[in-house]
Amino acid sequence: MKLFCLNNAFLKRFLTVPTILLLVAVAPIAAKELRWNWDQIDTKQVAFPHSFIWGTATAEYQISGAQRCSPSNWSRWESEARLEPSADACDGWNRAIADIELLKQLGVTSYRFSVDWTCIEPEEGKFDVQALNHYVALCRALRAAKITPMITLHHFVHPLWFEQLGGFEKQENIRYFVRFCEHVFRALGKTVPFWCTINEPGVLIFQGHIRHCYPAGVPGGNGFRRAAVTLKHLLQAHVEVYQALKKLPGGKRAQIGFAHSYLAFEHFHGWWSPGKSLLERTISGILSSFLNDSILDFFRTGNYRLYVPGLVDERYADPHALRALDFIGLNYYAHVFLRFYHRLQDTVHPGFRPGDHRTDMPYGFYPEGLWRAIAHVAQLKVPIYITENGIADAKDDRRALWIERYLYAVNKAIADGFDVRGYYYWSLMDNFEWDMGYSQKFGLYEVDMVTKERKLRQGAQAYIDAIATWKRAIHYAK
Ligand code: BGC
Question: What is the Cα–Cα distance from 83 to 222, expressed in whole angstroms?
């Protein structure tokens, strides 16, 4: 999850008279910030159900880099946007089987990873048997180690040929993604019980079409409209893949969902500073409708609507969406405190609440936000898996606290009656953080990017301990 600065050019497009009027109307009902008193909380007092799934996650491109495969939207973007090259990242592809030892050392019971479409279908319609067999072998080895695989079918990366056809911006291209997913499912359906179709559709379009820091086809046009159309197609693609996989052998048994990044936006200023507060609330409302509401409403009601007065009004209805989720994957990192500054270049900028613990990313700790996110996605009435949550912490002096507090939030949500069935820490190891290159250290394992050596971080011990405590509790309960 990334954050952003909203500069003047951005604001000028955003703040039309109708947008402001709309937001003046809805701003007063914005959710109140929830805060717990951490001084009085014992994070060791937690209890997780016997069936709880403990996992960690990666994505192929982030651990294997561009060098491994045929050209993709991302490999082209790395040079176009002059990013730090991903190169061979952590050499994840070649070490996939050996890395199972890392998972064992943590004690996790599941591993979420992505299959790389670019490697499996380097040319349209031509499938690489060896690439697919690589994943077959990985899944078998995971099962042998009693680690349940969860596969992500699209984690921000797709083949360049698909991008050149217009990617998800064109509705007629959805069929290519469906065909790819069917192909993978035929090979892996027997060994893999959990499937995430698409990782963070909202983030994908926001970073691509609005912030322009992820690849998003040929630049130009109305970014908001293009984002709204692409998001509609991504959601449609999920529904089509869901239906297609359900028809294949083993499909009925498979648990299919997608990973949603829940980003809550808060306004920094209160009504004592009405101008600033209104601006912050306006932008929060618009961003929330792009990144949260339009997506969740689609699966809750079967109707998709992305409406920003004067900018975009995109609608779509599909009743099948109501039955297209066996679970919802929730990726949660932070809430964003939008704060107005008197600066030309970044007028509205993520801010921090005084006293908040910081991460190396431009956001602080807010475990209460994970509880809120769970309560929010619970409206879908399907099981919830926390498919990503973790901290960038190069010094490794806050990771343990993060893990303890966020696990406490998950535990509290379960105690409050929410159906949370698993938690995946992001990430197993340090990796390529997209437009931020290798600067962010999310790993439970530190990776030396030259020798590729993996080393367990001390902060990871909090996760190992939590899992071991749960295992002991289960053992004694037997
Ligand atoms: C993405 C990951 C990324 C993580 C940390 C999520 O939005 O799914 O690929 O590394 O955030 O920023």
Answer: 25
